[in-house]
Each structure stands twice: as C-alpha cells, then as structure tokens.
Amino acid sequence: MAPISLPGYELLAWPAMFGLQFFSEETAFWPKLIIFNTSQYLVYFSVIFTVRKCLWLYQDKSPINKSKGSEVQS
Asked: What average pLDDT does this structure show over 6-11?
C-alpha cells in the first residue's frame, strides 16, 4: 500500500476498507463508492449509537440523578 500523508487515515477508513475487501478490484467505481460510504457510515453510526445508549442508560441509573429528582418533588 502506498504511504498516506494523512495521519490516522488507515484507522479512520478501516470500516470502509473492511467492507471493500469482499469485492474484487474489477468491480466498477460507483458500486465500490456506495459500498465504501455505506460501510464507513454504518460502522461509525452503530458505534456512536451504542456509546450514547450506554451513557444514557448509565445516567438513568446513577444515584446522583435520583437524588436530584427527590429534591425537585419536595
């Protein structure tokens, strides 16, 4: 692989490269572009969604939030 001038590009583009590895180099440009973008955004969307969901669940079960709720009611 040719050296890349953008540091961290291989890490950022890993989901897309992983999605493209199942297709040959003879695949046309437009299907490859669609596969590249779809795999790139689906992986990052699912990671961000999972992290936000875990944070949301953690904040709901936090004892700090429950004590604040009792102060508002009194």
From this structure: 81
